[in-house]
Amino acid sequence: MPLRSLLEVQAPASLGNKHGASAGAAASPGAGGAAVPGTGAAATAEGESGLHVSVEPLSGAHEGVSVISLSRPAARNAIGRQLLRELAEALDTVRQERTTRCVLVRSVVSGVFCAGADLKERAGMTQSEAAEFVSRIRRTFSELQDLPMPTVAVVEGLALGGGAELALACDIRVMGAGASIAFPEAQLGIIPGAGGTQRLPRIVGASRAKELIFTGRRVGGEEAQKLMLADHVVPDDQVYNRALQLAEQIVRSAPLSLRQAKAAVNRGLEVDLHTGLAMEEALYAQLLPTRDRQEGLKAFAEKRKPAYTGE
Prior knowledge:
By secondary structure, this protein is an alpha/beta fold. It is built from 12 helices and 11 strands. It has helices at residues 3-7, 81-96, 119-123, 127-145, 162-168, 196-204, 206-215, 221-226, 239-250, 255-268, 273-285, 291-302; strands at 34-35, 53-57, 65-70, 102-107, 112-114, 151-155, 158-160, 172-176, 180-182, 219-220, 232-234. A 7-stranded mixed beta sheet has the order 1-2-3-4-6-8-11, sandwiched between helices. Strand 2 and strand 3 form a beta hairpin. The protein is globular and about 60 Å long.
């Protein structure tokens, strides 16, 4: 494939200082954050009501960080139609949020990150409906992977099936020591269908991925870190704070640089080294005329923190 097609080479757009799509009024992370525009509070199966996904742009020391929170306690954040729709809308919100430099994906339900697909809802679907729904999950997780800014999965509790695949779609995973990740789909007569068979071997290697998929066994925090499923493992009561600390470090970097660096790594993994190096050169060159590059050099010479604007 021609390099230009892979790169879609163009100068990085100025991010500016204004918000794109607003995430609404901020709320505390523990309360689930602000509502995603357009999701409403539609009732769901078994009497559920309210939002299953919310978005909150943080401020103060964590300005530039947006938090996507899953909140479906009645079903342990199982991925049903409403949760998936709201997750897709949340991703669209942060993609357009021009000041967002890092996104955290977390659960506000105690003891679980995401229990995977909503099998009760799935049981009522026809074969074609189930196929289309799984395709939508796969597309949504790919949209998460393709967000231009860095993403961090905050894995507290169980991440099973689609929940594990959701974590894999993030750039970095922070996991609690007592948390568990598993891919139990083969025991249910299916396979991981939301990117698990592709992302997992790219992270842990083919043989390890096959073992985890073939057996469906649960992997705890310590082993997950050894397998590189988790990048950081901390005590269970420190997971969100550790993710916030990591995000705080990330947002100190120039926003255009974060986007170009992520693009270089992600796209480079899909091609041979020679092509990847050419992509890196092109992405680097796009940053040369930016104001942020000049600001970085000036701040270094003046021994102060840079004030990046995304321009």
